Amino acid sequence: MPFSLENLIQAIINGNAVQVREEVKKALAAGVDPARIISDGFVAAMDVVGERFERNEIYVTDLIITARAMHTGLKELKPFMVAGQVRPVGRAVIGTVQGDIHDIGKNLLGIMLEASGFEVIDLGVNVAPSTFVEAVIKYRPDVLCLSALLSSTRGAMGETIAALKEAGWRDKVKVVVGGTPLNETIAARMGADGYAPDATTAVQLIKDLIGTGRERRAVLAPATLDLFFREGSLEDLQRAFNRMTGLHLVMVDSSGSPLTPLGGFLECSSHCHLLQDCPAKDVDVTTLPGNFKEAFIYRCHAGLIEISYPLANEDGTVGAVLCGHCLLAGDPATEELRTAVPVLDIKDLEAVCGLLSFVAGQIIKLNAVLLANKELEEQRASFVHFLKRQHQLEQALKDAELKVLQSQVNPHFLFNSLNTVARLALFEGAAATERVVRSLARLMRYSLYQVKETVTLAEEVAAVRDYLFIQETRFPDRIRGQILVGDEVLDARVPCMILQPLVENAVIHGLEPKETGGTVIISGCRVGDQVHIEIKDDGVGIPPEVQRAIFDLQVRGGGKGQVSGLGIVNVYRRLQHQFGSNCALDVNGAPGKGTCIQLTFPYTKE
Known about the structure:
Beta-Lactamase; elongated; His_kinase_dom
């Protein structure tokens, strides 16, 4: 069966990977241009799929199946794309930001971008801001695509954009962000160029951004020539050309402004009186036969021959080399005029144009090398600055850690003093006082020495037990605690101090404000390969605005109900640091109905 674009499009829409591969093979065997297979086949099919997705006629699962079918066909075209037979319409670097390991949306975008003719560099998941910056510098993409699924990792997008700005690369690449925790307002606030809720929208957005956002820059500019031709070197070139040909040379920029002294180029004005009775200027020279290397030959206002050779690159004409003045063999002229200016025949004129072509070509090439080296040096300088900034941040972190260690001297003294008080209370027969002081000492030692380590859940529960004993002793008729954590999860490894701050929040914010007090229950069990922990109280509950603030990551360290700066958000971030995106923290509650905090993380003994 012969190849048909309609068959290919329909196979992609149906998500039939096998048929897509076969149709691509048929097209290649029939000699169809690979670029046409992409533009008229893959892109056309994707447009249909995108429209159906927007009309809710198909769903994400259908989109994924379709994308996989396209990817199968793209594998057949890869050798042709690598060999340069398919010129990419743009280059994109994509990745899921630091702290997030979800990649379905990112992978889908990568496939659809490739199907649209883009070269895609996929950095994977959990990508640090510095890694994104290094990739932008290395690959020089048209667009950087940042993906996230977790609201807690939204900040990493802003940090990546800030890192690009710090490195001096923000204005050299478009940044598109996407994912469920975002919207257009949030994307604009963090400094992104665009936001896309899904892959199909992202592809069109990226095309629009790089299609209208690219600013073409002329390779040649007066300042650049000044850099390339050191002081006096342009004049040296003019003098050397004049000695070889007897003609004068002038360079102008794209606006016609001279880049070199006009010198003898203006001397034709002094010959005007010699041409008054000569009809040479009436002889048309624009149609002369010969190979003039794309130079323009015309007569100046005085009637002498003038040559203009354009300085051009792929962006168009950016200047010109002007050469003059001379007579053409056969032009009527006095002996005085023939002595004053050179007289060239067609062969001489062709030779001069050939020389101008060579000179102009070398100027463009060498100037392009200069600009590339200059840009590379600027990039190197900006990246060195970025690395220095990263080093400063790392040093600041080390200094902060040192200050933390220094700040532990006083708590250490207090811890020893509490142990002394506990022993004195035991000697004096104050058993209850001894238990409270001993519990406080254990709790202090636990937080003081193990905050950077992972511990067993049993150790966490022991710390919570000590804390609740202290609170129950302080408020014997108002604060009650129950610990119902199953033995099957007690050996699970967790970051230190993830339970006690949450229990303290429940006691101080939930139970203490309640006139009759209440109960906080800590329960835990294993569900499959996950540990599920719940801290539930029957206190005053949590206002909706506070609950929203927690989800928006607006709650910060410090303030009442926080221990050593470890609040709810801090606990969640440390869980993420330990387990990546394979963990969750959920807060539910309502005024007068208590609060429930649920933690879920992998069960691991290492």
